Hints:
Layout: H1 23-31, H2 35-57, H3 60-75, H4 87-108, H5 113-127, H6 133-140, H7 144-154, H8 160-167, H9 171-187
Helix pairs in contact: 1-2, 2-3, 2-4, 3-4, 4-8, 7-9, 8-9
Amino acid sequence: MLAESYFVDAHTEPKSAIDTRTDLQLIAAINGGDSRAFEALYLRYRDWACILAYRFTGDNDLALDVLQETFLYFLKKFPGFVLTAQLKTFLYPVVKNLSIAARRKTQRHQSTETELAALENTAAAEAAPAGSGELALVLANLSTEQREVLLLRFVDGLSLNEIAEAMEIPLGTVKSRLHNALAFLREDPRTKSFFDR
Length: 197
């Protein structure tokens, strides 16, 4: 059976067909041979995975490639996959590593530094939604590690333990990075007002 046959376009899925089974129930069904269960997990997590991939690549096409590679990798884990944490915790390092590899591959194929600079400027402009320029600037001043933990906690909604597991770092390191990132945001005049409420 081809892995590609599992992927469906969300626009063809009627709203009433949303699968309400838990991730664990869907994984058990996939292990039992239910291809619709894989489609349900794909539909449930594809937007998150694509946004995360875009966060790392800054490129829509690369993010879509990473999305496809992520779910192909996930599909190859069946049958026999056992979920021991939240599915986002399992998928996060996969998306991150595939995104970094895709970005490096793309950068190797750039013929001049001028073209690379143009791509980076385009990606940076696309990465920040309208009206979020100052927030993007503040976040850009955080270290990569602090920004990553901050986004995983407050954008992706992972717990501190899940972040530690996804990033494969100690819980204390996660707490320290989050504490330092929040301290920086509290002190910056552009974001200080969010903490004074």
